[in-house]
């Protein structure tokens, strides 16, 4: 039996996620702003949770229809067999998001959906599930447009960018699925030398190492679908064991990371060690302005400092021309991909941009700027 799903992702990665989902066997794949709709058997949600490097969650669509009031949304939720999907002792949380909804209060709509679920359980077993807003067993999502309401059960639990690996973060970390998406947008492939000269907590390095060693990003964590009555443990364990059997042994990879700050580098080292990937990556403490390319050609990625990390905007804009000099003089033959929320950065770095891609790191609007460093001048 085919089910309908929606996988949200960082805005800007929808087309990449659509292709990834097709490769995992999804059908009727349709990208929209902020995610991708798709269909397939229920166990497809296991596979996407296990293998997707780009999705933020996998949401199982359980209802879709017209509405004009909070009561209509309540009735839609009330008609669903919640007690057939999970036990009453599971804690729940309801999240409601909307675009152009005529309803005055999303908080009241959230309450009505919760009441509907509790009423179903009260009829079925005389009890109601408890609400846990911090760490619920089951998350229910509602999405409202101007006229249509859609209800989902979250099969992921914690967001998928929480791989269960990164134990510590620095200021302004990049989300793991956005880091993986940037590597794909950069055209990076396993075996291609990669350098992150501002590696922070090591997110780019970990994602690249996992991709190189064919490590499924969800192979080391648990998911909400394990708490549903529809859960097929044998099928999930077989799927997970098959993924683990395809992992490659940890070897020294052409992946390089550096950071100006020793505490940042220590964080990256701890995260890589926890992931079992420390031997795969070369780390050193260094100032970006003083480093040289570790090999003749490769891809450089950097999540450029935000205001909180290296002082005010004016100081950062003094830094950009120096970064441009380093790239021009020491990274001929490399392609550089710089992520920043400062949309004025290219004007100050004074290099020719070959491509700019709008992306969002959480709610923060950013751009990924591509610079192809060729022999000769790359100055504007």
Give a description of the structure:
By secondary structure, the protein is an alpha/beta fold. It has 2 domains: 2-154, VC0802-like, CATH 3.30.2130.30; 176-213 and 248-372, Rossmann fold (3-Layer(aba) Sandwich), CATH 3.40.50. The protein has helices at 14-23, 44-51, 70-78, 82-85, 106-125, 176-185, 203-212, 233-245, 262-274, 313-330, 345-349, and strands at 2-8, 27-32, 35-41, 59-66, 92-98, 138-144, 148-154, 194-196, 255-259, 281-285, 298-303, 334-340, 355-361, 364-372. Helix 5 links the parallel strand 5 and strand 6 (138-144). Helix 2 (44-51) packs parallel to helix 8. The longest helix has 20 residues, at 106-125.
Short description:
The chain is 32% helix and 24% strand.
Order of helices and strands: EHEEHEHHEHEEHEHHEHEEHEHEE
Q: Give the strand line-up of the largest sheet.
A: 2-3-1-4-7-6-5
Q: Can you identify the CATH class of the largest domain?
A: Alpha Beta
* Net shape: globular
User: In which range does the helix fraction lie?
Assistant: 25-40%
Q: What's the oligomerization state? A: single chain
CATH fold-type name of the largest domain:
Rossmann fold
Q: In whole angstroms, how far apart are the ends?
A: 57 Å
Domain unit count: 2
